[in-house]
Write a structure and sequence with these properties.
By secondary structure, the chain is mainly alpha-helical. Helix content is 46%, strand content 9%. The protein has 8 helices and 2 strands.
Length: 196
């Protein structure tokens, strides 16, 4: 089954994948298909990752706690980028900590709500995501998506029953794949030839 957008703006999904995976170049993304920095410490189950049976890997990460520190963490391992996106969207769209993000009316408010919910420890996370969105004009892809507040709630945004949801999803995944797999320079070339 294809993952829904999980009530999130395409610009936020794409910028998070780019930032969390170092444009697809991090070891976590390249070797383990974890493009969103989702740790295995969560016991939350999703169709793409089961805490009892799915693999995980231990790798160092930079975390913020009274300054930046290198820590060893356990990360979820996925079979594909699609599974990484599916799991991350399920995690965000079903965890009460992120409920306010799902009804945010702008990408910035959405990222702020996710940061407040504990998605990242970096105090500059919101600024970094927004800089990635703005410098790559990612809000142009948000025209494919109507926020859940205008849709009538989270259920409509996450079930994907409108007639154009399949097309919206495919365009978003195409952009996401090109961003994280081709990297920044591939994306610049992609933007030259593709108009959403």
């Amino acid at each position: 089954s294809q993952p829904s957008l999980g009530g999130l703006f395409p610009s936020v999904i794409i910028a998070q994948a780019a930032l969390e995976s170092a444009w697809g170049q991090s070891r976590l993304a390249a070797d383990y298909n974890n493009y969103f920095g989702v740790k295995a410490s969560s016991t939350q189950y999703s169709p793409a990752w089961n805490p009892k049976t799915s693999p995980s890997v231990n790798l160092d990460t930079l975390e913020y706690s009274n300054g930046y520190n290198t820590e060893n963490a356990t990360w979820r391992v996925y079979k594909s980028l699609a599974d990484s996106m599916r799991d991350r969207n399920a995690l965000v769209s079903t965890n009460p900590r992120y409920a306010s993000a799902l009804v945010a009316e702008s990408p910035r408010k959405q990222v702020e709500a996710m940061k407040s919910g504990g998605y990242a420890t970096d105090p500059k996370y919101v600024d970094k995501i927004m800089a990635t969105i703005q410098s790559n004009n990612l809000t142009q892809y948000d025209s494919m998506y109507t926020p859940p507040a205008s849709h009538g709630g989270m259920e409509t945004a996450t079930t994907g029953h409108s007639s154009s949801r399949g097309d919206q999803f495919l365009k978003t995944v195409l952009v996401l794949l090109l961003l994280v797999l081709a990297g920044y320079f591939g994306y610049k070339l992609f933007r030259k030839y593709f108009k959403p």
